[in-house]
Every structure is written in C-alpha cells, then in structure tokens.
Amino acid sequence: MAVLKVARMGHPVLQKVARELTPEEIRSPEIARLLADMRETMQDYTGIGLAAPQVHQSLQMAIIELEDTEDAAPFTVFFNPKITVLDPELQGFWEGCLSIPELRGYVERPRKIQVDFLDRDAKPARIVAEGFVATVIQHELDHLAGTLFVERIRDLKKLVFTDEFERHWLPSLRADSVLAD
Ligand code: NI
After folding, report:
1. What pTM was computed for the model?
2. Alpha carbon distance 147, 20 (integer Å)
3. Ligand 1 mean position to 56 CA, how many Å?
4. Which of 25, 65, 95, 140 is catalytic?
5. From ligand 1's centre to the CA of 171, what distance in Å?
6. Distance (Å) from CA 124 to ligand 1 centroid
7. Is 140 a catalytic residue?
8. Residue-wise pLDDT tens digits, 34-72
C-alpha cells in the first residue's frame, strides 16, 4: 500500500468527467490495489472521503469513511454512482477538500439522496443518505463530474482560509456544521 499524491485545484484531472469502470475492471487486482491506496491516502490526510480523480485516476470511483461523528458511515466504495435527490430541501455545511488545502467554504446541497452504484464485487447496490453523510457523498461524487465545492459556493464571502475560519467563524457555529475532507 502507498500514500498517493493528491491533485490540487487547477490540475485538469479535477475538471473532467471521469469514465465508468467495467465489472471486470472493478474486480481486478489493479483496482483493488488502487482502492487500498486511496483508503490509506484518505487516512493519512485524515480525510473523510476521496475520489479517484484526486489521485490522478479519472475513474468513476470514490470512497467515504466517517468515524467519530454523530452521523457515522462505514467505509464505502462507490463505483459508477448515480445520485437521485429524495429531498431537494437544501442544507449547508462548511466544506473542505484535500485538493483545495487551507480553505473552507459554505455550500448548500439537497438534504436527502439515494445513490445507486456498483460495490467492490461489481454488484448493484443502493444506499439512502441524509444530513451530513448526504453532503459528504455529494461532495465526493461531484469530483467524478469534474466539479469542486468552490464552484457551488453562492456567497463568496463564505470562502475563507482555514485559520481565519477557526478564528472568526467557528466559535459561533455548531460543531457539526463543519466538513473536512
Ligand atoms: Ni474534495
């Protein structure tokens, strides 16, 4: 296993639509190794999600793992995911991204979604997510479409450096409205 280099905002791989994987590819040793490396990379950066384009692989593949939060989610890998919005009411969180270090931005997204995807055995799977987990998944799957969270910020006054965020914004926020990945 290895910690992989993370692409940063401005790299073309973060701006293009990733390609789908075939079931054969999903079950291949190469993808198993990439998955293990992505998980190690996410943990090394103390992230809660990572998408393949962030490690320079333009593939429809993303992982999440949330521990120690109110809305915990087990380690999950999504291949070729499709999102359906179940509740379009918007909820806002302060998001971060390993590809955009040192910045935080306030983003509103639908509060409840369904995701249809292939699991690591290339079998069809479906999950329903709401709240914080729904935002984390939408953030990660945005990467597969070449979209970064900064493109979804409506009020650019709410795009701030992390240290300024912690000094000036965090004290008045609920702890659960911060997303770092
Ligand atoms: Ni990200």
Report:
1. 0.94
2. 16
3. 13
4. 140
5. 24
6. 25
7. yes
8. 999 999 999 999 999 999 999 999 999 999 999 866 778
